[in-house]
Design goal:
Rossmann fold, globular
């Protein structure tokens, strides 16, 4: 397995989640977390798993992630195991929105089937920090992704 975790992070919270995900996936193969740099492309060739995440801002992904997703082609994504996450306040999604849900919808419009439902990790305030236990949840989520790749659920096989 060769995994790439692409993220945008404003205050370091999403970066910390992305790094834990990459470190955990690294126990099962090659994995790295890469912060998006506007205007700089990200190479997906040779990857078997692609994960994207960012903070929720105004009920949606950051402009950097939105631009990145717009540039991705269906062909680049078709053969990859794909998942997405966000960081946001722990309030009902109706009140906070979810960047991961918007990312998922954008990817699905490109014909991508996600491994699992989008995941949210929670912060205590606008600048963080992460709520207690969120790094452990991120590691557990990454392990679940590995299991889904090995034994996809019936929904993921469609």
């Amino acid at each position: 397995m060769n995994a790439l975790v692409v993220y945008d992070s404003q205050y370091g919270n999403t970066e910390r989640i992305a790094q834990v995900i990459a470190d955990t996936l690294g126990e099962f193969g090659e994995a790295r977390a890469v912060g998006l740099d506007p205007g700089q492309g990200t190479e997906l060739e040779g990857m078997s798993m692609f994960i994207v995440g960012c903070p929720t801002q105004g009920w949606k992904p950051t402009p950097t992630i939105q631009s990145f997703l717009e540039e991705l082609s269906s062909e680049e994504l078709r053969s990859l195991a794909v998942a997405c996450f966000d960081t946001r306040f722990r309030l009902p999604r109706l009140m906070t929105g979810s960047a991961a849900r918007v990312i998922a919808r954008t990817l699905q419009e490109k014909g991508v089937s996600l491994l699992v439902e989008p995941e949210s990790f929670f912060v205590k305030g606008t600048q963080g920090p992460l709520r207690d236990g969120e790094l452990d949840r991120a590691a557990a989520w990454a392990r679940m992704l590995i299991k889904e790749v090995q034994f996809p659920s019936p929904e993921a096989r469609q």
